[in-house]
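BACKBONE GEOMETRY TOKENS
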Amino acid sequence: MFDIVLLAVLLAAIAIGYGLGRYRAYRNFSRAQPPSRTPSRDYFVGLNHLLNEQPDQAITTFINVLEVNSDTIDTHIALGKLFRSRGEADKAVSIHQNLLARPALSSHQNEEVQLELAHDFMALGLYDRAERLLRSLLGITRNDAHQEAAKQLLVNLFEREGEWQAALDVTLPTLKHHPEMRRPAAHWLCEIAQKDIQQASRALAKRHLRKALQLDENCVRATLMLAELAMENGHYSHAIKQLARIPAQDKDHIPTLLPLLKRAYNLNNNEVGLKQHLEQLLSETPYTSVIILLGDVIHQQEGVDKAIEGVGNQLSRAPSLGGIDYLINLYMESQRLDGRPTPDSRLVLLKRHTHALLENRPRHRCQRCGFDGDVLHWQCPACRRWGTTKPITGVEGE
């Protein structure tokens, strides 16, 4: 239906463009030769295809009817965009290349068509051709809007190819005018640092991560990676200090830091410190995952009954499905320790229901587009924004 509506709009534009072309021809030539075919007939053939829900045939007919001139360039570009949006970028390439072959284009129009053609190549996965076209365009254009568009496309291309340094080379000189690019640039540095770690260049990785925090002081990913590097070197106290910075950077990522925090305190033989740290986190934000981890610590140090009491108190402040499921586990454990061969059937039934409700629920969600899943993606796979995916409260501790 969207294609039909859009084609109807394009049909009107084609009619206007054709009318303007005929009017210009009438003014310039008093005895114009009659066209080899009747445009009005082709026009209605295209309309018939459109009404019969045959958009491909309709578009082909309209392209054949519509001559290329300064009045119809925008219509041709719009047709190319329509093909690309429908997943037929190869047809969009044909339209845009046909436009570039016409001498009637102004330099401004020529650059617009080149940008569209670069879009087409990227949609087809022809990144090398898109890059050559964009670099050529940047070398000749004096139009600020075209320069910005070409740079954005280049950055998009380099991201898709994993060419993080190339993306930085394009972006860093423009950060003063585009501060919104600081977050993506910080994540590109994290990607570079990840490669450094894989190549055993940990000192270089630290430099890249510190540079990431200079670009974006709230880059949770860089702080986590610095903590992991400190852990690998046996500097557990330093790792804990790094992790303690994350709630101030983004409190929504408190659940993300917990596995590493627990490991750092355990390796540092400081379970008391872990309990105090978790209690401090709960005083700031009572996340389910923090409640559950604190319950595990109390269970280990003071027994299951104290854990039930502590978790119950916390859930009275911040009830959640994941927390209730964990509390049921504690009650079942308490009954087992009391000598009951099987847990209370009512607890078993409740456990079955909470497990079923939690089983298929995602643990992370993009705050921009709503994409969700079990894995934390630093770059959302759907909208491709960096740092927008976060744990879902109430489920993240399950």
Remarks:
- The chain has a mean pLDDT of 85.
- Residues 74 and 109 are 9 Å apart (CA to CA).
- Residues 2-28 form the longest helix (27 residues).
- Residues 1-98+112-123 form one domain.
